[in-house]
């Protein structure tokens, strides 16, 4: 159920108000009321040294990515790395970021599905209420059509009470359904927002951890040039 369909369903309750207004008019009274694939662990072989390996690093893909993105954007701690180290860090950061985005998108889809389910439940409640109230309206209308002018005058006060009662019931039902849907959907959106923030913190921590490992590898460390005396 889309937002437009939800709004349309709510509009059905407004239509019932119009029906009650018409019924009241027939009574003779004028009053009316109104929601990567995980990369394989790869060990970089260089002589007998064991080098940085991570599920987020593929040397071939990393080189391709680095050639397209020579400038490593992000944390300044990577400035202590040489060109090869920056290439590795840049690619790893990209993989971690994509992993986070996929998780956020998955959670968002689940949230949207739950909200759609809430709309469907609300629509079902609206339909049940509308059908029941419409029957009561038609019953009173049928009674009025069978009454003489004199009988209408005699029964007017009693029928007016019934009409006012239905109008109040319709308003209360509409307010209840709107409040319940908004409360539940807002809670789901808030949970998604908190999950997104948590995934961002998790991704940042992963990158810091991976970056620390990369910086600990001698082959990736920038060699400082000594000043000539």
- Count up the helices: 4
- Rg over CA atoms: 34 Å
N-to-C series of helices and strands: HEEHHH
Question: How far from one another are the termini?
Answer: 77 Å
Main sheet: which strands, in order across? 1-2
Name the overall outline. Answer: rod-shaped
Query: Approximately how much helix is present in the residues?
Result: over 70%
Number of strands: 2
Calculate the mean pLDDT score and round it. Answer: 78
Summarize the structure.
The chain is an all-alpha fold and about 230 residues long.
What does this structure look like?
- With 229 residues, this protein is mainly alpha-helical.
- The chain is built from 4 helices and 2 strands.
- It has a two-stranded antiparallel ribbon with strand order 1-2.
- Residues 29-50 and 71-76 have low confidence and may be disordered.
- It has a domain at 3-31 and 111-218.
- The longest helix is centred in the last third of the chain and has 68 residues, at 149-216.
- It has helices at residues 3-27, 59-68, 83-145, 149-216; strands spanning 45-46, 49-50.
- 72% of the residues lie in helices and 2% in strands.
């Amino acid at each position: 159920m889309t937002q437009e369909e939800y709004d349309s369903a709510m509009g059905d309750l407004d239509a019932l108000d119009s029906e009650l207004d018409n019924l009241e008019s027939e009574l003779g009274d004028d009053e009316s009321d109104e929601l990567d694939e995980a990369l394989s662990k790869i060990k970089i072989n260089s002589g007998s040294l064991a080098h940085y390996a991570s599920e987020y690093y593929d040397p071939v893909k990393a080189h391709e990515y680095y050639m397209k993105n020579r400038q490593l954007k992000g944390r300044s701690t990577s400035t202590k790395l040489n060109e090869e180290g920056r290439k590795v860090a840049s690619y790893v950061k990209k993989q971690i970021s994509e992993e986070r985005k996929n998780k956020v998108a998955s959670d968002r889809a689940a949230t949207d599905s739950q909200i759609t389910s809430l709309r469907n439940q609300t629509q079902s409640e609206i339909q049940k209420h509308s059908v029941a109230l419409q029957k009561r309206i038609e019953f009173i209308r049928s009674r009025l059509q069978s009454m003489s002018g004199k009988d209408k005058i005699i029964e007017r006060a009693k029928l007016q009470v019934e009409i006012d009662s239905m109008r109040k019931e319709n308003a209360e039902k509409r307010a209840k359904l709107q409040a319940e849907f908004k409360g539940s959907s807002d809670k789901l959106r808030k949970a998604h927002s908190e999950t997104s923030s948590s995934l961002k913190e998790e991704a940042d921590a992963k990158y810091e951890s991976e970056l620390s490992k990369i910086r600990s590898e001698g082959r990736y460390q920038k060699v400082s040039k000594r000043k000539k005396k």
